[in-house]
Amino acid sequence: MEAELMTIKEASLWASEFLGKSVSSSNISYLIQYGRIKKFGANGTTQIDKHDLLSYYSNYNGKRENDWKDKLGTDLNWALSFDYLREIDTTKHVHRLHPYKGKFIPQLVEYFLDAHVDDYKQEAFFHSGDIVLDPFCGSGTTLVQASEIGIHAIGVDVSAFNTWISNTKIVSINPMEILTEVKQISKALRLYLSDNNTLAFEARVLEELSKFNKMHFPVPEFKYKVKNGMINGDEWGAKREAEFLPIFHSLVEEYGIKLLQSNNSSFLGKWYSEHIRSEIDFVFDKIKAVQKLELKMVLSIILSRTMRSCRATTHADLATLKEPVNTTYYCAKHGKICKPLFSILKWWDFYAQDTINRLQQFSKLRTHSYQLCFTGDSRNINLEEKLIERHPKLAAEYSQKKIKGIFSSPPYVGLIDYHEQHAYAYDLFGFKRNDDLEIGPLFKGQGKDAKLSYTKGIVDVLTNCKRFLAEDYDVFLVANDKYNLYPTIASGAGMKIVNQYKRPVLNRTEKDKGAYSEIIFHLKSIEEI
Predict the structure, then answer these.
(1) Which position among 23, 73, 231, 420 has the lowest Cβ density within 10 Å, counted as fewest Cβ atoms?
(2) What is the pLDDT of residues 58-102, one digit of tens each?
């Protein structure tokens, strides 16, 4: 078949029309960069074959919906997949202020909290001025979306760091204050780095890697050949990795770089190079000197986000750590030899500006409603007492109308250790860990006892929270209930499942894009039915 060549811009317009949603030039460039489609022409005159693009998109456009329904059931509600959204939409403003495993997308929360109705949601459950509760607050998605809509929101989480993230997202602070403090810290960090060879070392390593990768891993030809089985990427990469290591080690010796810390008994000691750790401590000392709590919260989140990106691991294993990596390595994700980081400066600067931008974006959307997250155990927390103590205005709202309902995503059985995913932050900031209070953590597994313990935990949460709900409450729980526990949970809490919305969950992680669904359970009081 004769090639039908298009420019990247032409391809983005064609793809947008074909898919019925916005496809940017960057999206097309990504497909070229990562070997999904073949590149024609040189840089600056890049073209692609329309037939390649048609083949790529035809593999999942429409077909994916049918395939997933075959695997997950015909009751799958594809309208709740939000597949028309771009990643920038599902991670808008403060929702990407800090990484967090297991959070739901804001559009799902918005769908059930706002006052619209449609063929699936035939009545509005919440209205402006209501109060909604999230007893498993996580990273605060419900709180943020409630603020956009004009609904008051209360969050509770057993993890002190989760509470810190949530409250930082909804904090009200002048971005110029943050910028001023960031500039002072960045200036001090640069001065601190001028006394060692870290930046010069990284520059040399990058220079050598650029030459080496250009020779052995040409872009995008290498990835295209790997993707189409023309070359074994792992075998080729392993050989080139061994070939580059002597170059790396000679630079380590030349610049006097310490790859390991002398004490690696803690998380910070094991997963960070000596140079990274010293910079983290330096910046944290500067943050501790800041007097204003709201400013200190934002700066701490910037540092935590920076720390996460600077762990001594491969790019592919950043979300799920395996073993520390302190040397250059073949990176299957990027199709070349990559290196760990040896300074936090670049990421500190990037995340600082990104955080300021996101807070500014959210400030234009937020309403004058109240939101607050408490650190506590939702099985026994007294929300009324906490509100009186911490937020008198929200306490006054509560005394008039109580809490209209719940929108939350409880933890799943044996899936995530919620404290461990932020171990670096607990180590540095000194937050108290409450691992033993987690419901359904990974370390307890998915056996019979774990399921029984999980069921009792969720029942106890709902039973306790019922004390603070209005009589005509609506409870929405997002769960992948593969063990069919939620009918038992609802009954145990004196509630009844009145509806279920089964939705496909798209692109959960880079490594797991298979068919997967979750159910939004709608529960009401048995007395109200």
Answers:
(1) 73
(2) 765 556 777 777 888 888 888 888 877 778 888 999 999 999 988
DSSP-H helix ranges across 194-344 = 198-216, 221-227, 233-255, 267-270, 274-288, 293-309
Q: Structural domain of residue 33, as residue ranges?
A: 5-61
Same domain, 52 and 131: no
Last residue of some domain: 308, 329, 358?
Answer: 358
Instruction: Give every CB contact of residue 442 below 8 A, 6+ residues apart in sequence.
Output: 414, 415, 416, 417, 420
* 431/394 Cα distance (integer angstroms): 26
Tell whether 290 is covered by a domain.
yes
- pTM for the full model? 0.88
Task: Tell me the C-alpha to C-alpha distance, in Å, between residue 345 and each of 88, 194, 254, 353, 525.
Answer: 25, 12, 22, 13, 53
Q: Are 495 and 451 in contact (CB under 8 A)?
A: no
Cβ within 8 Å of residue 99, ≥6 positions away:
305, 308, 319
What's the total number of domains in the chain?
3
101-136 burial, b at 16+ Cβ within 10 Å, e below that, comes to: bebbbbebbbbbbbeeeeeebeeebbeeebbbbbbb
Amino acid identity, residue 406?
Answer: I
How far is it, in rounded angstroms, from Cα 8 to Cα 40? 11
Interatomic CA distance for residues 6 and 115, integer angstroms: 44
350's tokens: 């990037």
